[in-house]
Amino acid sequence: MKLPYHPIRRARGFTLIELLVVLVILGMLAGLVGPRLFSNVDKSKVKTAETQVKMLRGSLQTYRLDIGTYPTTEQGLAALMSKPGDVAGWQGPYLEDELPKDPWNNDYVYKSPVDNLQGFALYSQGADGKPGGEGLDADVGYLEK
Questions:
Q1: Domain boundaries, the chain
Q2: What's residue 122's pLDDT?
Q3: Dihedrals φ, ψ of 107, to 5°?
Q4: Average pLDDT over every residue of 24-43
Q5: Residue 144 carries which DSSP code?
Q6: How much is the CA Rg of the chain, to the nearest whole Å?
Q7: 121: which of 8, 59, 144, 145 fits an S-S bond (Cβ 3.0–4.6 Å)?
Q8: Does domain 45-142 have CATH number 3.40.50.720?
Q9: Strands 140-142, 109-111: parallel, antiparallel or unpaired by DSSP?
Q10: What is the 3-state secondary structure (H, E, C) of 117-131?
């Protein structure tokens, strides 16, 4: 009895050259798309800082309605969370959660009284964490004059 002839089929995989071409193409795509995604992340941090400053401003205004003045620079934003010792009429806490840090994990700068439209300065120092700056490093919020 003769068995049917079955040619041996070689399993064929990808060659090293084919794998390298695919890796180069993926690297090029990542190089084109990556910077656009990261620039959007930076823009969203600026928007987050603007939103947090507005939220803190609302809490400061509620504090002012109860006390009659904004917290002093020495009392700081902590006065929104716990009653300063020498203040009468405090009905806080004025924030639902903990005092937030800015999107770059720095404390917000708060000073009061100052000579501007709000009567206080409240701002983030931007991505560089230093006063002033431009672009992503610019201060965000209600600045001193």
A1: 45-142
A2: 95
A3: -75, 150
A4: 77
A5: -
A6: 29
A7: 144
A8: no
A9: unpaired
A10: CCCCEEEECCCCCCC
